[in-house]
Amino acid sequence: MxxxxxxxxxxxxELVTPLVTATGTHRxxxxxxxxxxxxxxxxxxxxxxxxxxxxxxxxxxxAEAVLAAQLIPLLLAGxxxxxxxxxxxxxxxxxxxxxxxPMAKAAVEMALLDAELRASGRSxxxxxxxxxxxxxxxxxxGIGSVAGVIDAARAAxxxxxxxxxxxxAPGHDVGPLAALRRELPDMILVADANGSYxxxxxxxxxxxxxxxxxxxxAIEQPLGAGDLAGSARLAGELATPVVLDExxxxxxxxxxxxxxxxxxxxxxxxxxxxxxGAAVRVHDACVAAGVHLSIGGMLExxxxxxxxxxxxxxxxxxxxxxxxxxDRYFRPDVxxxxxxxxxxxxxxxxxxLGVELDPGVVGAASARCRAFRPS
Length: 375
Ligand code: MG
What we know:
There is one protein chain. The protein folds into two domains: 3-121 and 359-372, Enolase-like, domain 1, CATH 3.30.390.10; 126-346, TIM Barrel, CATH 3.20.20. The chain has 13 helices and 14 strands. The protein has helices at 60-77, 88-94, 102-119, 124-128, 146-159, 174-183, 202-212, 228-237, 251-259, 270-273, 276-289, 302-312, 359-365; strands at residues 3-21, 24-38, 41-47, 134-136, 139-141, 163-167, 188-192, 218-220, 242-244, 265-268, 292-295, 340-341, 344-346, 366-372. It has a seven-stranded parallel β-sheet. A four-stranded antiparallel β-sheet has the order 3-2-1-14. A three-stranded antiparallel β-sheet has the order 4-13-12, with no helix packed on it. The longest helix has 18 residues, at 60-77. The protein starts with a strand and ends with a strand. Residues 192, 194, 220-221, 245, 267 line the site of magnesium ion (MG).
């Protein structure tokens, strides 16, 4: 592949509904886009880093800076004549010279794959060997009053969602979850604690035992990201499958969690793991270990949502996932919206990521754009 130019663009979007979690409130949604112009056509990638460093240490401003100062120049340095970078995999492999920054790197990988797949007329889903044409969608409801949670859950059910994740934290857990169970008995429920419980706290332990009585499909990241030993203990005590999310920030972290038998399931977020290739490696390792899988969301805009849906259609994903339709997050989205049909989202089947950026939406939301060329 020969890259002629790279464009790094920052959009400023707002979420349709702010999301309150145990670690903060998400309102703004900066979106960093990487566009590659190659001899064989274009490719686009989206960076999932959030506005604030309250969910991961990586965040949008930092991702944008490292893309501009390190990753894009490294990509363009290439291996041969100006802009010649080899295959997408070879080009992406060179970015390992910069430590960390998985979400920034994942945006470059997405753009490289999109360009390479489009040039060869293939879709991401086909290249991953995905057989499903759609995945079950999931709606996420943030922390709030019991009445507010019930209203939001009813609205999601009315739209056709059959799987719902409720964000919880100590003091905001058994009450709303039990109310949801009563009000929507057929809804498949997951609770996501974002690491907010502590096994050393008797109240937290009592709350976790009470949550375990509610017949949830999973409880996600009850304990801190680094507490694999505690998670292993809890996974042995609870009937509800314990799923790790924040703990799984790289394929190596997934291997460590599997070796420690720290969970019954893993939430795969391709961007946080360092990209689509890393997500597939974690998927395969979990399948081999007999561990359940859930596809995780990062408040993606349409481009990354397309990639996440394709990854989430891999055969090992058997737990309720996070991925909802575009209109729960952005109106309008940066691509044609991913829409809910009978509780499912279609796996994009078009070339590359299978979606196109909307120039009008992108232009209106653009805060800045920088261009880079091989020297
Ligand atoms: Mg989570």
